[in-house]
Structure formats: C-alpha cells, structure tokens
Amino acid sequence: MKLVITMSRRFGTGASIIAKELAEKLQIPVYDKVYLENELDEADFETEAALIRELAEQPCILLGRCASEILADKPNLFNIYICADKEDRIRRIMKLESISYEDAKVEVEKTDEERAKYYYEHTGKVWGDVNNYHMILDTSQLGVENCAGILMKYFERMEYI
C-alpha cells in the first residue's frame, strides 16, 4: 500500500480516534500538529510543509495542517474530511475534558474559527469545502466507532490496499 491519507476535521468529531484506529489497521503511522511541532525547532508553515512532504514519502495518515493542499500533486493521496453536528461535538468535548456545556461550546467555536482561518491563510481556500476532499464522514450519522471500518472497506473495494 502506497496510500497517503490526509484527514481534516472539525474540532470534537473524534477524528483522532478514527485516525489511530485506521493507522493500526493499515499498520502505518499517524502524524499530527503535536508530532510536527516536536520534530521541528522552528514550526513556521514552510518548515512544517517540508516535513509533511518528507513524511508523505511513505504511507501515513496526516491529521490537519493543510496536508491535503501541501500534497495536492502527490499520487496515491486520499483526502478525508470528518464532520459532526455541533451539539455532538460540544457533548464530546464536555465529556473528554470534563468541562461545562458553555466552556465546551466556546472551545468548539474558537477552535473551528482558528482552523478555518489557518487553512484560508495558507491555501486561499475555504476549510471544509466538499470539493477539496475525496470523502466526507459525518460521525454524528456514522458513529466514530464505525468510520475506520467504513474506510477500510472502501480502500479494499477500490484496491488501494
């Protein structure tokens, strides 16, 4: 398998859980913002983009960081967007971080706004635009626990793996 998967997501969708489970099934690593920042002394966009290109030389899953655009010309790239109803995301963050509804709502809205701004600043595109992804998964409808399996079935059917 030579597939490189990018996964963009709204905050609180459970995408990191999906990425981890999918990575285990495919036996490939997952790289996220924390990993990239730990690898770099200077984490500006160009330095991060160079590291993303280097990591994508091997099969992997890249969470966020405009990876779908950075790697747009790469063959064997599959871009996924994970979304969920806002109320579900708020409840997930409340439970995950043991915080109030209002605090979780503020965190969800603030993080979504920051991600949209970051994406637009670095790509000139609208974050979450369906035209930028091969597949969109709604965890409110599909369940976080089902998404990695759905992706695996699709990859097998399309003979990506």
What does this structure look like?
By secondary structure, the chain is α/β, with parallel strands linked by helices. The chain contains eight helices and five strands; from the N terminus they run βαβααβαβααβαα. It has a five-stranded parallel sheet. α1 crosses α8 and α5 (86-97) packs across α6 (101-123).
Secondary structure topology:
Layout: E1 4-9, H1 15-26, E2 30-31, H2 33-39, H3 45-55, E3 60-63, H4 67-70, E4 77-83, H5 86-97, H6 101-123, E5 135-138, H7 139-142, H8 144-157
Parallel strand pairs: 1-3, 1-4, 2-3, 4-5
Helix pairs in contact: 1-8, 5-6
Task: List its salient traits.
8 helices, 161 residues, five-stranded parallel sheet, alpha/beta, globular, 5 strands, 54% helix
Are there runs of 5+ residues with pLDDT below 50, and where? Answer: none
- Name the average pLDDT: 95
Question: How many helical stretches?
Answer: 8
Tell me the overall shape: globular
**Number of β-strand runs:** 5
What level of helicity do the residues show?
Answer: 40-55%
Structure at a glance:
With 161 residues, the chain is α/β, with parallel strands linked by helices. Helices cover 54% and strands 14% of the residues. The chain has helices at 15-26, 33-39, 45-55, 67-70, 86-97, 101-123, 139-142, 144-157, and strands spanning 4-9, 30-31, 60-63, 77-83, 135-138.
